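Table S2 (text version). Query chain:
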Amino acid sequence: ALIIQRADPGLYNLLTNGILQARLDFDRSKLTCRAMAEKMADTAGGQMGWNQLAEGMALRQAVASTDAVLAIEQAETSRGKDGVPWVGGGNAGGA
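Corresponding structure-token output:
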């Protein structure tokens, strides 16, 4: 690192800033995963209203993707509009 810093200070700054940004992005993703797990645990407790239960189901479907940030965005976009599983295999409720 010292050799790169002396040879090309601009490149060293670019690499250092890139590493710092990657760490920030990773930390945000970790926090998103943690928040998602807590929200799913709250929903699984069964003490929620129908709207929150529907949002939990949307989050459950979105988790199929391996990208936590994308899963949260999909769940927030849907906001439980698909309803909840009901008798007969279909969904009930939602918008």
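Notes on Table S2: The radius of gyration is 21 Å. The chain is about 70% helix and 5% strand.
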